[in-house]
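Q: Could you fold this chain for me?
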Amino acid sequence: MDKPTGEFFSSLGQYVYQYVYPDTLKPYYTGKGNGDRCWSHVVDKLFNPENCYIVARNLEKFEDKQDWQSFLLESYLIHVNDPENNSVSGHYKECFVMASLSSLFTEFENDQFDNFAALPDWYVSNYDSFKNRVREVKINATTTFVLSNARNQMYMMFYWSPTDVESPIKVTFEINLPEGDKLESVKKTLVSWLKSEGHKQTLPDGKVQKLAVNVEDIDSVIGLWNSFWS
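A: Sure. Below is the predicted structure, expressed as structure tokens.
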């Protein structure tokens, strides 16, 4: 197995890995890290990269939660043990993968090829604005959905349709806080910032943590995106 690309390792975020015996999958080494940390043992310990498994990935998602350490462990144990009396299956369960490094890299390469072919021109031409700031991109024949990483306990998201470029684009901001005084304070700050960006009218969007604005076109959305991250 050749060493995966830097882009692939970046996609893992904060992760936990194990080197396992291939016949039993019993681990003989466990570690954590980011970037190509798991690959360092191929060089300094001569471990076989085919025996490397990613146990959990993108664990930075949990950092926005209160008491995130216990929150993460609870979610992991619910995912692994599936207790019969837990009504919720666990948060961010997609982080717990237990998959070989080689299979994840193959999946990543396939996704990169498909996504690149389908990415709209505005995304490609503004790639530097989106790089390392996007949590999720979903593309189908009628819409592109973009969800940002968290910034100041907020997420920015929008849908864009290539078949409806004349209509305003709804851009939604979600605040990652429970109901209460702190949430209301952050919302006021958000509304004030949106007014400074020329968006005087905000709209509710399904839950108390969300506010939305209508933006004229995709270029203006990208301008708002850049301001969000500045």
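A (continued): The chain has two domains: 6-114, 120-229.
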